[in-house]
Amino acid sequence: MGKRRRTALRVFGLLLVLAVAVLTLRTNLPDLGQTLDVLRSAHPWWLLLAAAAEMTSLRHFALQQRRLLAGFGVRMSVPRAIAVTFTRSAISFSLPAGSAVSAGFAFRQFRTAGATRRSAGAVAVLSGVLSGVALLLMYGAVVLIPRGGATGNTDTLVLVLAMLVIAGLVFLLDFLLSPRRPAPPPVLADDDPEHPSGRIARARASVSRTWDDLRRLPRRSWVLSLVHATVNWGLDFACLAATAAAFGIDVSLVRLATVYLTVQLVRQIPLSPGGIGVVEVALLAGLVSAGAAHGPAAAAMLVYRLLSCWIIIPLGLLTYATLRRGPKVPDAPPVQPPALATRR
Q1: What distance in Å separates the CA atoms of residue 5 and residue 66, rounded to the nearest whole number?
Q2: Nearest CA among 26, 126, 115 for reference residue 70
Q3: Who is most buried in 67, 111, 158, 237, counting CB within 10 A?
Q4: How far, CA to CA in Å, does 52 sit from each of 15, 163, 231?
Q5: Residue 171 belongs to some domain of the structure
Q6: What is the 3 state secondary structure string of 241-267?
Q7: CA dist 7 → 314, 334, 337 (Å)
Q8: Which of 251, 65, 231 is nearest to 156 (CA)?
Q9: How would you classify residue 189: left for phi > 0, otherwise alpha for psi between -120 and 50, otherwise beta?
Q10: Spatial distance between the Cα atoms of 37 and 116, rounded to a whole number of angstroms
């Protein structure tokens, strides 16, 4: 697909999202003064739970990639994996073509940790694949759960606390199942395979290599990586649910999950770095259509995006400084993740 066609599709997608938002909000846009009043009335304990859920979500995104690296015999400490996650997330959120630049940065960090070119590329690709599978599992769960009315804060509190407890148990399980000595890496067919010509042939070769790499990984590695990815998405949704509760938005968790998953679908369209601007409009329109008042909907959108996106950019700059102290490896071509749903 040519550059002009991609640009045209992005502009069309952006206009489509804005059109849907205008149709949803045309009768009553959120008033700035009302939104500020709602922000000042937020319940601090809910905001604290939302922040804890989002930070724990980021940790599990780091643990997912760390577990995949371990499957290829590469060890990376938890603090360093978290630093890589914050830095690559900041890159993805702040730069044009941020996803590609973020993938290239992660590739180089995996190489710094001792991964071969093939295994570093496999981790980057498999991470995206398993994140996409985890998101599909969430879609399936929402479809199967019967709809209901407003549920109140009790169900939201149970959800957030349950996700935090599950996250702790998964982290403990990952620690207990980690080998005390580096596991021998699975034997890959070629560390630098020759790429076939033709777009379809390259796509088939990429799918074939990804499947082969997944089969060669120890079952423990890809299963735990999928669990980490699922917890990552679940905690991010818990952050949104806690933020909504902080401003008194009383809609069913199923309807809120539908809004969340719709926004994630919109976010996969690379209209802007990190979906900035697009996600905010789509989330606001989704909350209002789910039954939230305009002021609380705008306040919840602002706080959720602050926790899940905006605040990560300066934090990523700080963690980047710690990563610069590590050993260097020669630059390698960035590895593009597959076109599947990715969290960062």
Answers
A1: 37
A2: 115
A3: 67
A4: 35, 11, 13
A5: yes
A6: HHHHHHCCCCCCHHHHHHHHHHHHHHH
A7: 29, 22, 20
A8: 251
A9: alpha
A10: 54
Residue 303 is assigned to a structural domain of this protein? yes
- The pLDDT tens digits for 122-170 are 898 888 889 999 999 988 887 776 655 555 678 899 999 999 999 999 9
Find where tokens 């939201």 sit: 156
Residue with tokens 């599947």: 340
Number of domains in the chain: 1
Amino acid occupying residue 304: Y
- pLDDT at 339 > cutoff 50: no
pLDDT digits (tens, 9 = 90+) for 260-307: 998 988 787 766 777 777 888 889 888 988 888 888 998 999 999 999
Q: Rounded to whole angstroms, how far apart are CA atoms 296 and 284? A: 10
**Does residue 115 sit within a domain?**
yes
Give the C-alpha separation, 307 to 283, whole Å.
Answer: 14
**Residue 46 · residue 243 · CB < 8 Å:** yes
Separation in Å, CA 135 to CA 31, 68, 196, 258: 34, 18, 31, 12
Domain containing 217: what range? 31-178+198-323
| Residue 282 within any structural domain of the chain | yes
d(CA 242, CA 239): 5
- Of 138, 159, 144, the closest CA to residue 240 belongs to 159
- C-alpha 283/C-alpha 260 separation (Å) is 7
